[in-house]
Amino acid sequence: MKQTIDQVEVQGKRVLMRVDLNVPMKEGVIMDDRRIQMAIPSIQSVLSRGGTLTLISHLGRPTGNGFEQEFSLVPVSKRLSELLDQEVICSDDDSSSTIILKENLRFHKGEKEDNQSFANTIASGCDIYCNDAFGTAHRNHASMVAVPKSMEGKPKVAGLLLAKELEYLGHAISNANHPFVAVLGGVKVSDKIGAIEHLLGKVDTIIVGGAMAYTFLVAKGSEVGASLVEQDRIEDAKSMLESASKFGTTILLPTDHVCAQTIDANAETKVYDGSIDSPWMGLDIGPGTATNFAGVLHEAKTIVWNGPMGVFELSPFRIGTEAIALAIANATAHGAISIVGGGDSAAAVSDLGLDEKMTHISTGGGASVQMLEGRAFFSVAMLDDAV
């Protein structure tokens, strides 16, 4: 366990806090402020105890060649001001303000290069380092690695959000109650190979949906029509299916499919039970599969979900993802621990208004997948252990 921001004295100290304020923006307007909201508890912990704050974050993917209006954090500072009911200045200049937000870290090449000189500039004048950015915990960037290096001898602690993420995606999984079910979806098997291999033997059942299921089905000899298949991963899928039986883990695949010939909201759809004919392609799990998967989830005591069951952004292909979300919410209501990771899964839960029905919704897509793979993060290892 890591020491957390609420466990250190901050009175009269300036805390440099790495937060994840990488929110979706459109023409300078914040489309979803969830990540800003999630940063508030750690910020309030410092302010309520007499500390001052310098917040640092990235936003989007600027070129790294200086200021770009499209990626400015000024709109974020305004939203923070509203949520905190006090002014938050967005500025790279030294300030005596109680709370400032430095401009987008990625305006500087030094951030992604983990440049020590850049890190020393950021850390100047700060007394405590706090990492509350789980969404970038897997990236060895300056704000995550070089900055704590430059603050040698000073407290380096986890924020409340980071600590919560580590607890659920680390401790809760390694000490899971059984039956333990992992639901993995999305497009590519290659994105989830590490997670599947790590979970074999730890979980009782792995439910596979999304386009990645068709690579597994081909590995089992099924006809999948024009469905997306990673030809170079078929042998990997075969190997994982064989390993699962040795480890005592059941891998469940879709048995019926909502299909279309084009990925379009107005496309004609057809449900195939078993084999799929070309040029039809599977774009969502079918109703029979949804019922079967929901039955397994109903019995679960621990559930991890990462990745949708289909092209849920389009209404004809969202029913499977909705069914899974509702089944997990129902299992949670009956005492299961549910952990939702990945942007698409979290978005689906939010769209259905089920945020409060899940035990934990992770803020990190890539980071949550890497934790499911059993990887350790150097940025976290650098933080002080709890006393």
Report what the structure shows.
The model has no long low-confidence stretch (mean pLDDT 95). This protein has 14 helices and 17 strands. 35% of the residues lie in helices and 17% in strands. The chain is elongated and about 65 Å long. By secondary structure, the protein is of the alpha/beta class. It has two domains: 5-163, Phosphoglycerate kinase, N-terminal domain (Rossmann fold), CATH 3.40.50; 176-372, Rossmann fold. It has helices spanning 34-47, 74-84, 109-112, 116-123, 146-150, 160-174, 193-199, 212-219, 234-247, 287-299, 319-333, 343-351, 365-372, 378-381, and strands spanning 14-18, 25-26, 29-30, 52-56, 89-90, 99-101, 128-131, 156-158, 180-184, 205-208, 250-252, 256-260, 270-273, 281-285, 302-306, 337-341, 360-361. Helix 1 (34-47) packs across helix 2 (74-84), helix 7 (193-199) runs parallel beside helix 13 (365-372) and helix 8 (212-219) packs across helix 9. The strands form four sheets. The protein has a six-stranded parallel β-sheet with strand order 5-6-4-1-7-8.
Radius of gyration: 22 Å
- Superfamily (CATH H level) name of the largest domain: Phosphoglycerate kinase, N-terminal domain
Q: Can you give the helix content as a percent range?
A: 25-40%
Structural class comes to: alpha/beta
Strand content: 15-25%
What is the mean pLDDT? 95
Query: Number of helical runs?
Result: 14
Biggest sheet strand order reads 5-6-4-1-7-8
* Number of distinct beta strands: 17
Give the count of structural domains. 2
Give the termini distance in whole angstroms: 9 Å
Can you give keywords for this protein?
single chain; 387 residues; alpha/beta; Rossmann fold; 2 domains; 6-stranded parallel β-sheet; 14 helices; elongated
